[in-house]
């Protein structure tokens, strides 16, 4: 792969077309050279020994043509991957995420906040961040999105991500290599286990392999010169079969376990990029040292050696290889070289997939950081408080997202959020929650400034019924609230977001239950926001000293309802459900 290439997106189509033309020309040349190899070989065996020189020259040219062809195909794959990455980045910039991997399998109904904040699924944060290729890296990213909060540690990660986000060429190269060549194929766990297992070296294989090569050359030469009956050549082949059978099983297992050449190429190119890159952040330096050893051969060289062994192992059933193997006993030397390599380096190389999966995560976070270009100042405090300046929702297009300032501390640790339908209550609560997830992940939140105390996040927004479990949506919500209360009473510090509290029951019970819950929380350590349509609950601000009212408003006009999506102090002065129903065609008192 070409390293450090100049990147101009507008030139990619032209370069791709040029590569296609070169590849087409080489394909024809390769075919002609192959015919030349066959022709000169026939002439050598049937006419004159002098044709050996033509055979060697044409064979050398054929090998060079293959190498050049493979190089150009790799370059074509890289440029195609750059085109795809460019298109996907445009999807992300436009917030058109439908075509991107949503990680739906990582949704977890019982999780404290995953299902409520659009972390996975259609139009999700996972789609916005994920640039990984391996299933292992996808899982690591998902686990990080769902992980318990450790905000102080996230500050260290954010510093590393910031440094990595400035290394544009490294990020582009790492991502394009994965997109171009990574193919999961065989289970990485299976080949890692095989690599770690003791190598089954057989001491006799080297000696017998040398005997096979020398004996085959001598007998072949004598047979060609007519000094030895051809029957002796057949006998030699029969003698070698039992020896070849002794290593057949090991080589067959290696063929089944060793990953594809494309996967090894991906690992090798990723490692080469890391070997050539310098980092200052201690986290990045430590992550690099897992792969780039200070002593011994480079991991990229070892991977290239393994790929060479793989090439021979995978071609053992090739029609050209079988007669050579039977005559020269080449499997014996192949087995010796592979098992010697495995005994020396197998355990070390087996760790690479896990280490490189971690780098896939780093690259995803850094590419996201660079693409979104957020410059949020963050502060993690000991006091449980929250303060945001200019905070927006990351899944909304930047041109339409409305920024809000918001502050909450222990003097008003419980906020009652009222507002008209569609005025922005739920989106605001999700904005707070998803930005806290970004903060914990180690990337910049979508705000100018964010200060928050160490806490855990808990939400209850999308509670739905489950016929299979005979669970109603109201019971599901109560179960979520019970989970929250249990965690608070166990001593956890929570920032909780409850949307449309107790909406599954009648107004009288809803108001009574909401007040009872709020009073029950008095002695516990939390920040919380509860949204409701019950304006009667806003009177609790006068009765309970830690309750504050905030709201979103709407302006009802003759044929429209207008929203500014800005949070305001105090309860909502008016609601719009009546007007919305009128606009949808519901008639009141016979009026349209």
UniProtKB/TrEMBL annotation:
The name this protein goes by in its record: DNA mismatch repair protein
GO terms under biological process: mismatch repair
Keywords, sorted A to Z: ATP-binding, DNA-binding, Membrane, Nucleotide-binding, Transmembrane, Transmembrane helix
PANTHER family, alphabetized: DNA MISMATCH REPAIR PROTEIN (PTHR11361:SF99), DNA MISMATCH REPAIR PROTEIN MUTS FAMILY MEMBER (PTHR11361)
GO molecular function (one): ATP binding
GO cellular component, one term: cytosol
Gene3D superfamilies: P-loop containing nucleotide triphosphate hydrolases
Annotated source species: Algoriphagus formosus
Domain (DNA mismatch repair proteins mutS family): residue spans on this chain: 412-590
Residue ranges crossing the lipid bilayer per the database entry: 25-44, 50-66, 204-224, 230-249
